[in-house]
Write a structure and sequence with these properties.
By secondary structure, this protein is mostly helical. The chain has helices at 3-24, 28-48, 52-76, 81-86, 92-115, 131-139, 144-165, 177-181, 185-188. The protein is elongated, with a radius of gyration of 28 Å.
Length: 200
């Protein structure tokens, strides 16, 4: 088995496992960690295909931005974070395993490229061609309908996140001017008489 094939199966197995754990984990913190691992594994597969732009975009956009959005959603759901912080050290083994897997994946990709073990027969584009320009042309011509469908799905997710925060009775601090007019001083202020204290 070639080294490139081994790396592909290694990343694919981790990606499938992490994806399954994202949807089966009951703890939102564990699910978020597995989702980060899935994104890193997918970016490794893109690197094998010599699609560096997509790999870096996957890490920067999804790991950097989408995960922040997920954390905001977790905060909006009013999860008892104090209880989660109490078991901080219980997350350390899982976090360490995921971190070691990410380091191993990056070492395989970078080390394989450095040692020349990941050479492939993928035709290289000329120096004048731009991968970003080619991707943009494909997205807005051939794949415009899937692109629009993905944007609609993201919009539905945003609306659902906002709707989750509006559940139950809203506790706001709005004031009623008609009630403020009839407020008496005795309702707001109470004078308490206390005996004087003498110092010895």
């Amino acid at each position: 088995m070639e080294f490139k094939t081994f790396v592909f199966y290694f990343f694919s197995a981790i990606l499938v496992f992490a994806g399954l754990r994202v949807i089966t984990s009951r703890n939102p913190v564990h699910a978020a960690l597995f989702l980060v691992l899935a994104f890193f594994s997918a970016s490794g597969v893109w690197m094998l295909l010599q699609a560096e732009f997509l790999a870096i975009a996957l890490i920067l956009i999804y790991v950097g931005a989408v995960m922040v959005l997920f954390l905001f959603v977790v905060m909006m759901l009013d999860i008892n974070l104090d209880r989660l912080r109490e078991g901080f050290w219980s997350y350390l083994p899982l976090g360490s395993i995921i971190a070691l897997l990410m380091v191993a994946e990056m070492a395989l990709i970078l080390g394989g490229n450095y040692l020349g073990l990941l050479e492939s027969s993928v035709p290289q584009a000329s120096a004048e061609a731009s991968n970003v320009k080619a991707i943009g042309r494909l997205i807005f011509t051939q794949y415009v309908y899937p692109f629009e469908l993905a944007s609609v799905i993201l919009l539905v997710g945003i609306v659902a996140a906002v709707a989750l925060t509006q559940r139950g009775k809203r506790k706001n601090k709005s004031v009623n001017p008609s009630q403020q007019v009839f407020v008496k001083a005795a309702d707001r202020l109470r004078v308490v008489q206390m005996p004087a204290e003498k110092r010895d």
